[in-house]
Amino acid sequence: MNAQRDNHYDIVIAGGGMVGSSLALGLAPLGLRVAIIEPVPRAAETQPSFDDRSTALSRSSQRMFQAMGLWDDIVAAATPILHIHVSDQGRFGFSHIDADEQGVEALGYVVINRVLGGVLQTALGKVESLDVLCPARIVATGPAPGSATVTVEEGDDQSRELSCDLLVAADGANSQVRTMLGIAATQIEYGQRAVIGNLLPEKPLQNVAYERFTPQGPLALLPVADDRAGFVWTVSEQNADRVLALDDESFLKELQHAFGNRLGEFSKVGKRAAYPLLLSKAMRLTAQRAVLVGNAAHGLHPVAAQGFNLGLRDVASLCDCIADARRDAGADADIGSELVLERYSNWRRGDQKKLVGFTDGLVRLFGDTRGPVRALRNIGMLGFDLIPGMRSLFAKHTMGLAGRLPRLSRGVPLS
Ligand SMILES: Cc1cc2nc3c(=O)[nH]c(=O)nc-3n(C[C@H](O)[C@H](O)[C@H](O)COP(=O)(O)OP(=O)(O)OC[C@H]3O[C@@H](n4cnc5c(N)ncnc54)[C@H](O)[C@@H]3O)c2cc1C
Question: pTM (2 decimals)?
């Protein structure tokens, strides 16, 4: 292969986090020449995607990993969610959603990001048509006739020019590639931080995921391995540093107070970390020969555990658009053409808008402590089961089965 060809890829993916890596694996059956550009090695303590968070994977994400041949490795380290229990601190009302009632074997599965990262990395190593440049980062991009150019900085300030038919920004909520492409994004800070970690409850969760709304923000407890619970505790920005600095005993006491005694006494809390929470939305999903996926396109509050699941549906839709272009025009199809990008953008806009509205609405509705709103909410919680379609809509979003789904999200392999 000559040097010019060597530096040309069908697709360059900026960001080898959860979404960028999944995209490279989703595309693998198409045999395209793909490069991932990622600044932080997966095993590094500072890797922002594959860290100690527990992620709840929806049914559509499960089906997608099944279609990609990765599910057996993921499920070996995952815990099924059979029930979801939603409650409001200080109120009697609560609601629950059951897998049986929904006619599914599980509503979702909980996996630790670091573990998922290991499975994805092993699979990436087996894709022959893929190059992973790491540590490396994209420092500039621009259009060229019939392609996009990408300047990549590798260690020691060495830079290299690549070209590609399609550039995919999967570099997270503060996407620099999105900025380089001239796509603006709105960012709204919630004034909250999510404190995450895991603990041992006296009574095992028995495959129940708990979501509890408190005046400070939502608190989720997810079932993970060894009868432990992964927690995502939203605290106000003003309170976050204090909560993080508490010794283990005081921390558990405050968390217990927020959650209540439904699971008995909490003990043995693990390492804690905190994430600032914001809602980010890109104004457009495409630029010339470029698309946005995952958090680069939309960053959600983790209240409904949907950010990665939504990002995977971006991935599945993009894979569908590219596979269809190649089915229609053969191996010479222009996969970065405006037609392909427009199809992707039109397809994704609705799902993203719905999820952004749904999660932001939940945060605002349940975060509002004013009397009338709280009173109305209380009626809502008590009547949650009675509002026609409400629970099944919630369940559908949770399972990721709303709207028109691409092949991979339906569990259909690309080839
Ligand atoms: C507390 C918390 C709990 C969550 N729980 C859930 C859950 O249960 N279920 C769920 O579906 N979602 C959940 N999410 C959301 C989920 O974590 C994100 O949606 C997901 O990580 C997005 O992945 P991403 O690959 O798009 O972005 P990121 O995870 O941010 O990864 C971006 C990658 O791009 C790399 N990068 C950065 N700059 C550059 C550059 N210039 N060039 C190239 N690469 C670059 C980074 O190093 C990183 O590897 C949660 C989020 C939080 C904060």
Answer: 0.93
